Every structure is written in C-alpha cells, then in structure tokens.
Protein: Gamma-butyrobetaine dioxygenase
Amino acid sequence: MRHDVEILDDGKAIALTVSGGQVRRFHAIWLRDNAWDETTRAPGNGQRLITLRDIPVETRVSAAHCTSGQLFLTFAPEDRVIAYDIGWLADHAYDRTGRRAPGWIAPQIETWDASLGARIPQADFSEVVHSRTALAAWLSGIRRYGFGKLTGGAVESGCLFKVASLFGYVRETNYGRHFEVRTEVNPTNLAYTGLGLQAHTDNPYRDPVPTLQILYCLENSAEGGENIVVDGFCAARRLQAEDPRGFALLTRYCANFEYAGSEGVYLHARRPMIELAPDGELVNIRFNNRSTAAITDVPYEDMAEYYAAYRRFCDLIDDPAMEVTFKLSPGESFVVDNTRVLHARKGYAGAGSRWLQGCYADKDGLLSTLAAIELQHGKAM
Structure:
C-alpha cells in the first residue's frame, strides 16, 4: 500500500499513513529515542547504546520520505538519516483516540467462570518436554486463562522442580524452596490441615508477591480435597458492572496483609485488593481472608461502603457459578497465576492420604519463554 508522511510543527513531529489508511502522529524525540540503527541499538540484544541525554533537546525532523515499507527520516541538528520499519511503527503507535475505561484487560487475557469446562489448558508432561510447539500452546493457555494442568508426570518427590524448569526458576521463600501440603499436627499454616480453604491468592503479605504457584500431586486417596480455581479478574469485573462505586473503592484504597506464623518471620504489605495500573489496566488481585490485617487506610466516610464492596467481592468469589473444580491424581500438577486466579480446596477426610508439593515461580519467566518461542515461529501461538 502507499505510505505518506508529513512533517508537522516545524519538525517536532510527523504524520504517517499506516495500514488501512490510518494516520498516526509521532514526535521527533520519540522517534529518535526509538531508532534501531547500529549506533543507537546494540545488534543482537537490541539494548540502547545511548541515553536520552545524548539526544539533543532541539531534535527535529528536517526531511522524510517513504519507500518499500520503510520510513527514512533526517534528524537535525545531528544531520543523521535513520530508517524505520513502517509495520513496527504501526504496531507501536501511541496516537490513539479515546481512553480505555478503568478495569480493561490485555487482549491476550480471557476471563471465565464455571462454564470454562473442558477448555482448561492441559498438556502431557513428556509432550511439553520434547516439543516446543506443545510447550508454547500450554503456556499460551496459562497466559490466556491464568492456570493450566499437566498430566503424566513421575510420582516422585521434587518433580515440581521439573515443571518450574520448563519456563523459569523457583522463587524461594521462608517456606523453603518448596513446601509440603499435607495434614500436620500444630501446623504453621491452615493449608497444612484437612480443612476446606476459601478461594484466595497466596502470600498477599509479600511485596512483590510470588506471581506463579505450582502444585504437584504425589498422593490423593483421601475423600474430598478437590482443587478449585476462580478467575479473580472475572469476579472484579462483575463487581464493577454491579457496583462501580464499590469497585472504585477496592481499587483506590490499600488493604493490609500480614503473616507471622513462623518464628523470626513477620511479613506485611499494603496493596489494594483489586489493583489497577495508572492507565486503568486490571493487573492484580490480592485476596486472602486468613492473611488480611486491620484495614486502616480507608477514610471513615468511605469505610461502610468499602466493607459492603468487600463483602460483595467475597460473595462473587464464593459463587459456585465462578468455580472450576478438578481433582489431581498422582503425577499431575497445575500452575496458577497468583496475580489473577484464586485457588481453593475442598475439605478432605482423614481416611486415605493427600500429599501435594508446592513451590513459587515468577510469571516473567513463563511469559519470556512463550515470547521467545513465538518469536522463533514468527507468530503468536
């Protein structure tokens, strides 16, 4: 297609016609800072070789033309000609009309409820070990839905580390490199009892919070003990649709979370239960009734409404219509996005045994592995 470029405001910006005939404006300083020539970016890793201070304050575009899908700009006062891929510029355009409403989510994310059913992202362990395509498909499902299952693993202590190594590294905490999830006498955490657990995110008292949790089943002959997952983003958006004011209160004010169950350990964090990025993107859910401390950052005049919204958020999370339930068999595991998906467990009886091992990892490793495979294949999986 034909691409046209026009210099604006005496070279301080340009207007570029991209795909579909859309016109996108770019500032000269942004274009110079995002140049990909060999003196600005390191070949291979793409890291910048210059700082913003190396770019003249009076930078402007003195000449511009398009040819063969590329934009050629001459920058003054450097008198430097730099080429840009027009497709890259179109993908990274920031000249957009309208603002997104608070609570928007990234396009790769799909919210869900109990109707998710058989669409649970699931893969066989040996398949994802030997096939990068299968691994990418599974990781893509976790990115989209916030959790995924693996079947066909060995029934051996420590196998959860093999799951973590598929995409990243274990994040060690005061619970150790991993933790055992089975009934204990005088446990330091209610997870180590046979009691049912309300849907929750783990470790909200940490900052930063572990962004992934891995649970690996070694024994599960006890009656009950099914795993439950709930999409916190879906619950938050339901609350927003029902009660915009309540949603705003849970995003505006910090809650307090704390843990002091082990000797020498006292963890505390202040964060909203529903966290938005500055541009309104829904990015994090922190919800754990067991670890919520006294909430003190809400003004008196808002506290009653805050608690009403908190109660409704609880109701939505506990709604059976929000739950996806499954029972892990020995050798099976699941990975959960701890910034989005809440997990729970039904109570189980003393007869039989239930032994899971858990550990934490970080989502940046998972997303990095997925992005690298997608880049290698030249497309999103």
About this structure: The first strand starts at residue 5 and ends at 8. The domain at 5-91 is CATH 3.30.2020.30 (NE0471 N-terminal domain-like). The two ends are 27 Å apart (CA to CA).
